[in-house]
Design brief:
By secondary structure, the protein is of the alpha/beta class. The protein is 40% helix and 15% strand. Helix 9 crosses helix 13. Belongs to the glycosyl hydrolase 1 family.
C-alpha cells in the first residue's frame, strides 16, 4: 500500500439543491429544480429539495460534525440563484453572506473548501428567457456568475470545480427526459453539452486572467468499461463506447477537441454538429492551463456489440429492486451488459473497486493531468438498529476497497490530489428521493427535527483520515 501524500485531500461532498433547503429564503431565486420537483410524476415519490437536510439553517451543526470526522476537505456547490436570483443582474448580498459564513467556518476548522460552481440548479429565469443551455448566451451569463464568485470567495477558496457531471445532466435532460427540461432530442443533447464545454473553457480562462492563487477544473462522471469478449465486434463496440462516451466528454474539456470517429458517427446520423472553429481555439486555450481533472466514479460498464435492431436507451433502476436494470445501448454500436465477475448494488450499479484504478490509469495515459476524485460512494438502504446505531459495514467495505484502488493507481504514477466521498450527510437523491442513502451521517427524514446520527462508517473514515490512509 502506498503512502498518501501528506497534503492529500481526504474529504466528502454535497450539492446545494440536495442539502440546503430554504428554497426561497433571503432573496434566493427559483431554479429549474425548484419548479421541476413540484411537477406531478417527475421525482421519486414526489420528493423535493424545499427543505432537504435544511443545511442552510444548520450548516454550523454540519461543519461541527465534519470537524469531528476529521475531514481535510469539503466539496459543496454554490446555488446560482442565491447569488443571482434571476441568473443575471443584481447580486443578492444575503447569498454572498451565507457562503462567506460557510467558507470561513470551514477554514476555521481546518477544512479546505472545494467549491463547485454548477451542480444542475440552473436559474429558471434563464430557462424561460432563452431555454438555458440550448442558447450560447448561457456561456456568457455563466462566466459572469463565475467571476462574481471568484471575486467574492477566491481569496480563500483554492480549489474550484466549474461543472459537475455535465454529461449526466445533459443526457438526463435532453436524451432520457427524466431531468429538466424533460426533452428527447439527440441534437439538443450535443448542443447543450458543447455549451457546457464552452462555459467551462471561458470560466477557466477568466479565473487564470484574474490571477487567483488556486486550482480549477471540472468534474465528469467517468465510467470506464471492459469488452465483454475478445471478439472483433465487441472490441469495436468498446471503442465506440469510449469515443461517443467518456472521450467525447473529457476530450472537449481537457484537449479542446472531440474524437473524430464520434463526429463521423453523428454526421452519418444527419445530426448537425453544434460547434464553430473559433470554439476550439477557446477550448484548447483552456485545456492548456486547466489544473486538474475531476471525476465522479461509481461503477464500470461491460460492453458488447449491439446490432442495428438491438436495444436502445433504457430507464434506470430507481426502485432499489436488484436485478431490474435492463440492457441499454446505441443500436449498431454497443450495449452495456451485466458483468458476471462482480457484484451489484440494489440499484444495479456495478461494484468494481479495481475499475477505479483502471480508469485513473487510463486518464493518466490520455491527459497526463492531476486528478481529483470528486465523488465516490455507495447508495444503500441504511437502517437504525434497536440500540440507535447504523452499522453500515457494507459501506466501509466499499470505501476501503476503493481507497486501496486509489493507492494502487498512485503506485502506477497517477497524480491524485484527493478523494471526496459522496456524501457527508444523507441527502436528496435526484432520481431516488430520500430512501437511497450515501452519507456518513444518517438524517432522520421522517422526523421534523431532521436528527443527525453518525454511522459506523463515520468513525471508520475518521481513522482513515487520522492515519492518512493507513488504517483501512
Amino acid at each position: 500500500m502506498t503512502q498518501f501524500d501528506r497534503n492529500f485531500l481526504w474529504g466528502s461532498a454535497s450539492a446545494a439543491y440536495q442539502i440546503e433547503g430554504a428554497v426561497a429564503a433571503d432573496g434566493k431565486g427559483e431554479s429549474v429544480w425548484d419548479v421541476w420537483a413540484h411537477l406531478e410524476g417527475k421525482t421519486h415519490e414526489g420528493t423535493n429539495g424545499d427543505i432537504a437536510t435544511d443545511h442552510y439553517n444548520r450548516y454550523e451543526e454540519d461543519v461541527a460534525l465534519m470537524k469531528k470526522a476529521g475531514l481535510k476537505a469539503y466539496r459543496f456547490s454554490i446555488s446560482w440563484t442565491r447569488i443571482l436570483p434571476n441568473g443575471t443582474g443584481i447580486v443578492n448580498s444575503e447569498g454572498i453572506n451565507f457562503y462567506n459564513r460557510l467558507i470561513n467556518l470551514l477554514i476555521e476548522n481546518d477544512i479546505q473548501p472545494l467549491v463547485t460552481l454548477y451542480h444542475w440548479d440552473l436559474p429558471q429565469t434563464l430557462q424561460t428567457k432563452y431555454l438555458g443551455w440550448e442558447s450560447e448566451q448561457i456561456v456568457h451569463d455563466f462566466t459572469a456568475y463565475a467571476k462574481i464568485c471568484f471575486k467574492a470567495f477566491g481569496d480563500r477558496v483554492k480549489y474550484w470545480i466549474v461543472m459537475n457531471e455535465p454529461n449526466i445532466f445533459t443526457h438526463l435532460g435532453y436524451i432520457m427526459g427524466v431531468h429538466p427540461p424533460g426533452k428527447h432530442d439527440e441534437a439538443l443533447f450535443l448542443k447543450t453539452y458543447h455549451h457546457t464545454a464552452l462555459a467551462h473553457a471561458h470560466t477557466v480562462l477568466a479565473y487564470k486572467e484574474m490571477g487567483l492563487e488556486g486550482q480549477i477544473g471540472s468534474s465528469i462522471a467517468f465510467t470506464p468499461a471492459y469488452s465483454s469478449t475478445s471478439s472483433e465486434a465487441d472490441q469495436g463496440a468498446l471503442k465506440s463506447y469510449y469515443d461517443i462516451g467518456p472521450w467525447w466528454y473529457l476530450d472537449s474539456y481537457y484537449k479542446g477537441s472531440y474524437p473524430e470517429s464520434a463526429i463521423e458517427y453523428y454526421t452519418s446520423q444527419n445530426i448537425e454538429m453544434p460547434f464553430k472553429k473559433a470554439d476550439f481555439e477557446i477550448m484548447k486555450a483552456a485545456a492548456e492551463v486547466v489544473d486538474f481533472i475531476g471525476i465522479n466514479y461509481y461503477q464500470t460498464a461491460m460492453v458488447a456489440y449491439n446490432p442495428i435492431d438491438g436495444v436502445g436507451i433504457s430507464s434506470f433502476n430507481t426502485t432499489g429492486k436488484k436485478g431490474t436494470q435492463k440492457e441499454s445501448g446505441i443500436p449498431g454500436l454497443y450495449k452495456t451488459v451485466k458483468n458476471p465477475n462482480i457484484e451489484y448494488t440494489d440499484w444495479d450499479w456495478a461494484i468494481d473497486p479495481d475499475g477505479l484504478r483502471y480508469g485513473l490509469v487510463e486518464l493518466k495515459a490520455r491527459y497526463d493531468l492531476p486528478i481529483l476524485i470528486s465523488e465516490n460512494g455507495l447508495g444503500a438502504f441504511d437502517t437504525v438498529s434497536s440500540d440507535g446505531a447504523i452499522n453500515d459495514d457494507y459501506r466501509i467495505d466499499f470505501l476501503r476497497a476503493h481507497i486501496e484502488a486509489c493507492g494502487n493507481a498512485i503506485n502506477e504514477g497517477v497524480d491524485l490530489l484527493g478523494y471526496m466521498t459522496w456524501s457527508f450527510t444523507d441527502l436528496l437523491s435526484w432520481l431516488n428521493g430520500f430512501k437511497k442513502r450515501y452519507g456518513f451521517v444518517y438524517v432522520d427524514f421522517e422526523s421534523t427535527d431532521l436528527k443527525r446520527i453518525p454511522k459506523k462508517s463515520f468513525y471508520w473514515y475518521r481513522e482513515v483520515i487520522k492515519t492518512n490512509g493507513e488504517a483501512l
